């Protein structure tokens, strides 16, 4: 069955991407993802201008035997130049998404100016939803600042760009963020990032399980699937068709992928479960999705993408 997607001028021959931050910090990680035949493209760890160590360990913990994850990595990355060098070091047979996350308004602008002025011709994703930089808010929860940043960005940035959003939990917030995003020539929206500032406790030790922020961290994995599905559905219904959708959050099976496609996702990305299963998960997800499509008599994802039924 035909399982492909298009974002702007980029054709994805497979529907699967890594979620930024998982299995994508090093050039080796990115090559492993690239070499897997079931990945449609690759996404880098969000980059800052300079290399960052990130928060102190322990900063990641698996919850309830892999049903979820909590992380407060703190944006550890090798810096923009490292990822640009990698992306300019060879030609790629799949689309690449360079993720960036400045820790200030000015850093976000400078990151994008350097990308605009570079020879990089792939896709860029502005991460507006990192929940773990101590003392910094998740930008996309501040609608005015989000509008201000995007207004400034589109004065000079002419290459393909999308945004990574945090989960919203209020229908009015979906209306507000969609109203802002619809004003800009965005290629895509990627929803959701981790559910910010959760807390996990070890009953034995009567302690939190990660060190940064007194144990508070972003929640991912299966337990955030309902939130991811809702955000993709709500944003798809509100965003103009030219803004394509990457569905992220809690994918562990082909059924979850099918559900995201029904909600309108063009592509999906996998984080927590990728960290557990390594890139071979993409082969599993693709064969599970294909089996569901064959069983239902679908020959192309276009026959059911975005066609989630309500109960009339
Ligand atoms: O702590 C991180 O590095 C991190 N962790 C996340 O769960 N989402 C993000 O966007 C980031 I930049």
Structural write-up:
This protein has 312 residues and is α/β, with parallel strands linked by helices. It has a single domain (5-55, 75-195, 222-303), classed as Aldolase class I (TIM Barrel, Alpha-Beta Barrel). 33% of the residues lie in helices and 20% in strands. The chain has nine helices and 16 strands. The chain has helices at 27-35, 80-88, 105-117, 143-156, 171-181, 225-238, 254-263, 272-277, 280-296; strands at 5-7, 10-12, 16-18, 42-43, 60-63, 68-71, 96-100, 123-127, 161-165, 188-191, 195-199, 201-202, 207-208, 216-220, 244-248, 267-270. Strands 3-16-15-10-9-8-7-4 form an eight-stranded parallel beta sheet. It has a four-stranded antiparallel beta sheet with strand order 5-6-14-11, with no helix packed on it. A two-stranded antiparallel ribbon has the order 1-2. The longest helix has 17 residues, at 280-296. Bound molecules: the ligand O=C(O)c1[nH]c(=O)[nH]c(=O)c1I. The ligand O=C(O)c1[nH]c(=O)[nH]c(=O)c1I is lined by residues 21, 46, 71-75, 101, 127, 129-132, 193-194, 218.
List keywords for this structure.
binds ligand IRO; 312 residues; TIM Barrel; 20% strand; 8-stranded parallel beta sheet; alpha/beta
Short description:
The chain has 312 residues and is α/β, with parallel strands linked by helices.
Order of strands in the sheet with most strands: 3-16-15-10-9-8-7-4
The CATH topology label is: TIM Barrel
User: Major β-sheet, in short?
Assistant: 8 strands, parallel
Order of helices and strands: EEEHEEEHEHEHEHEEEEEHEHEHH
Radius of gyration: 18 Å
Low-confidence stretches: none
Mean of residue pLDDT values = 98
From the N-terminal CA to the C-terminal CA, the straight-line distance is: 30 Å
Number of E-state strands: 16
Q: Summarize the amount of helix as a percent range.
A: 25-40%
When the domains are counted, the total is 1
Number of helices: 9
The CATH fourth-level homologous superfamily? Aldolase class I
